[in-house]
Amino acid sequence: MSADKGGDRKIAAENRKARYSYEILDVFEAGIALTGTEVKSLRGGKSNITDAYAAAKGGSLQLYNAYIPEYLQANRFNHETRRPRQLLMHRREIGKLAAAVEREGMTLVPLEIYFNEKGRAKVKLAIGRGKKAHDKRESEKERDWKREQGRLLKQRD
User: Fold this and answer.
1) 68 and 47 in contact (C-beta within 8 Å)?
2) Contact in structure between 21 and 130 (CB atoms under 8 Å)
3) 59 and 32 in contact (C-beta within 8 Å)?
4) Chain CA centroid to CA 7, Å
5) β partners of residue 115
6) In this structure, which topology does domain 10-131 adopt according to CATH?
7) pTM across the whole model
8) How far is the C-alpha of 103 from the C-alpha of 65, rounded, in Å?
C-alpha cells in the first residue's frame, strides 16, 4: 500500500534530512499508537523525527527515538518524550519491511508524521539505503543543475 493518497492532511513533523541522507526506495503509510497527551502535543507541531528510525521487533514495528514534547496542560498524566511507539500495519506489510531491512544497508526511515482527513495520526515510512558522501555531493550537483536549467528557461521566455 503506497502512502501518496493526497487529501487534506496536517503535517505534524517532517524529516527533511531523510531524502538527503538516504536513497528512498519505497514509501508506506502506517498508523501510530499514541496516548492522548501525545496526540495533543503532536497537534502543537513541536515534535521532531530527524533522528528517528523504525525496526521490526517481535512481529510488530516500533518507531524509536521520535521526539514528541510533553503536553504542558497534562501535569502528572504526561508521556515519555522519546518512548518507543508501535506502528500499525498489516502483518504481510510488516513482514515485507522486516525482510527489506535485513538486506544490507537498508533502513526504515520516517519521512513525516501527519493527521489524515479523519484526524488519525499516520507515519509515512520509507525503505532507504544510506548514501555515501560522494552520492550526497552528486545529488546536490544534480539539484543545482536542475535549478539552473529552470532559471535559464525562464529567462529565455
Assistant:
1) yes
2) yes
3) no
4) 18
5) 10, 121
6) Small Protein B; Chain: A; (2.40.280)
7) 0.77
8) 22
